[in-house]
Design a protein that fits this description.
The protein is of the alpha+beta class. It contains two helices and two strands. The chain has a two-stranded antiparallel ribbon.
Length: 58
Amino acid sequence: MASEPLVVTNPFNGDVVGELATDSSSKLNNALAEASDLFQRRRGWLPLHERIEILLRT
């Protein structure tokens, strides 16, 4: 079940600027745990020199 979107308004005039998707706290905690786990295993990332080569080619 999707959560209600967060409506973003302009504080000056109250106009709706946009909407952001929201989720449950358990899904957020799962996403943060996964991101943390991936960061902890950063030895598996591409080495710095390879990332720089990719950026220089683009």
